[in-house]
């Protein structure tokens, strides 16, 4: 396992620790119903620049209104960081600062002026009425087909749309700082790695990044006009989610470079087995962590896969030979959208089961047939499942927080 995995495990451990320490005091009896607790994200890992081909954005908010609040807050923190780093390094760059009016244009601005008020706003069940929100959102989710049920694929599409929207917002923000002449394109000359990346010691991550290098830039330049428009720039920052074949191949090249411990330019079986294969297996069976039991059969199936991928049979994997599995090594947003949807459905089922067990009222169950399709009524019955990032209920919060571990 590489340092990268170690980092992930460490992060997960920390997150768990954090969650445990924050978990509500269960011994305290509750004053019934949803006591809402505000949990707007207030820490934003600005890791995308340091390693975009391994970076993953936090899960998107289900409700675009919540997303706007979170993004506005994130923007603010980002600007702060931006000014700090740029004032530390060079003082004359103030003129190229991002302008601070990222105004969401698709939905009318709610009644919060400042982000401090945003907390109160979300926490106030009269102003932010989750029932009304879900009623408003449902017709936008139930579109394929419009049949009064939100299917698994509709929910996945919805989640995907939300994460793409958030990603694009971040890319636009990032682009403003690079597009120095403001013509809507970033040229390689305009592009410059953020100073907090440049100053980072690349060996501390176990391999040298190449992300800001010219070949990454060129690969993102789909039409080859020597500059990136916002679409291309967004791809540049999210190569795992691109449909640009040049960029996908670049991702394979990076993967080879990273795994190629003996630096012969190719990946042999050992390098494949201890690195790439683990990722693929995790992708296929996310919960199988039972490594020691089946070491032999593991190696056997790794060998099989290796031989399959090694099309020219030279005993090494090249970048092109990695293409069939690159999506498993760098899962696109769609993968996470499916996970998020499964999680939502799982929560709904769990709630429904608990509800039935407690009250034995069959007609009150959400998605009782568990066919993965939700009616609006079912959604309204478990509204906080859709706002896990923001609220946690006092009851069941142990279940609710699992969400964050996905990423
Ligand atoms: C949110 O609401 C709860 C109860 O309704 C209250 O105890 C809590 O202080 C509120 N939090 C904020 C940040 O307003
Ligand atoms: C939220 O809206 C629904 C439907 O409009 C209404 O029945 C409910 O009372 C509202 N909840 C609150 C807390 O205002
Ligand atoms: C980063 O890696 C490259 C290539 O391995 C190396 O030449 C360069 O000195 C490294 N930079 C730092 C700051 O360590
Ligand atoms: C990137 O493309 C430009 C032309 O647009 C070319 O001059 C440059 O050599 C290319 N760089 C790399 C690393 O391929
Ligand atoms: C950016 O350029 C690509 C072609 O490289 C094109 O498909 C895309 O529509 C352009 N995006 C915008 C926003 O113009």
From TrEMBL:
Classify the source by domain of life: Eukaryota
- Gene3D superfamilies from the UniProt entry: EF-hand
Q: Name one GO cellular component term.
A: endoplasmic reticulum
Q: What keywords sit in the KW lines?
A: Calcium, Signal
**Keyword Signal among record annotations:** yes
Signal peptide bounds: 1-27
Where the record annotates domain EF-hand, the positions are 217-243, 252-282, 297-332
Nuclease among keywords: no
List compositional bias (Basic residues) regions by residue number. Answer: 33-42
A Gene Ontology molecular-function term? calcium ion binding
Q: Which Pfam families match?
A: EF-hand_5, EF-hand_8
Q: Which SMART domains match?
A: EFh
Specify where the region named Disordered lies, as residue ranges. 24-63, 86-111
Which PANTHER family would you find in this protein's record?
Answer: CALCIUM-BINDING EF HAND FAMILY PROTEIN, RETICULOCALBIN
Q: State what protein this is by name.
A: EF-hand domain-containing protein
């Amino acid at each position: 396992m590489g340092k990268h995995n170690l980092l992930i495990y460490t992060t997960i451990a920390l997150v768990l620790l954090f969650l445990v320490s924050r978990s509500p005091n269960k011994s305290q009896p509750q004053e019934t119903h949803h006591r809402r607790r505000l949990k707007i994200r207030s820490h934003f890992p600005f890791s995308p620049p340091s390693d975009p081909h391994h970076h993953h954005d936090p899960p998107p908010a289900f409700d675009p209104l919540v997303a706007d609040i979170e993004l506005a807050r994130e923007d603010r923190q980002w600007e702060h960081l931006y000014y700090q780093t740029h004032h530390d390094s060079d003082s004359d760059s103030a003129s190229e600062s991002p302008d601070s009016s990222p105004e969401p244009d698709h939905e009318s601005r709610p009644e919060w002026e400042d982000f401090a008020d945003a907390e109160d706003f979300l926490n106030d069940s009269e102003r932010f009425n989750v029932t009304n929100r879900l009623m408003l959102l449902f017709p936008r989710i139930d579109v394929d087909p419009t049949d009064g049920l939100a299917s698994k694929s509709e929910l996945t599409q919805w989640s995907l749309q939300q994460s793409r929207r958030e990603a694009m917002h971040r890319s636009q923000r990032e682009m403003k700082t690079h597009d120095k002449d403001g013509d809507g394109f970033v040229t390689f000359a305009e592009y410059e790695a953020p100073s907090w990346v440049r100053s980072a010691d690349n060996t501390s991550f176990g391999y040298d990044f190449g992300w800001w290098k010219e070949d990454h830039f060129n690969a993102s330049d789909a039409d080859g006009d020597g500059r990136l428009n916002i679409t291309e720039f967004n791809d540049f920052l999210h190569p795992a989610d691109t449909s640009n074949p040049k960029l996908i191949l670049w991702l394979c090249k990076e993967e080879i470079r990273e795994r190629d411990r003996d630096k012969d330019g190719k990946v042999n079986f050992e390098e494949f087995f201890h690195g790439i294969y683990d990722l693929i297996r995790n992708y296929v069976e996310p919960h199988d962590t039972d490594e020691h039991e089946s070491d032999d059969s593991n190696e056997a199936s790794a060998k099989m896969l290796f031989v399959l991928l090694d099309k020219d049979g030279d005993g090494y994997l090249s970048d092109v030979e990695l293409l069939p599995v690159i999506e498993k090594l760098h899962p696109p947003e769609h993968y996470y959208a499916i996970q998020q949807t499964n999680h939502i459905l799982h929560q709904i089922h769990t709630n429904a089961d608990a509800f039935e067990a407690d009250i034995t009222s069959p007609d009150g169950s959400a998605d009782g047939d568990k066919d993965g399709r939700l009616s609006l009524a079912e959604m309204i019955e478990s509204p906080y499942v859709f706002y896990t990032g923001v609220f946690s209920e006092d009851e069941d919060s142990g279940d609710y927080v699992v969400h964050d571990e996905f990423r």
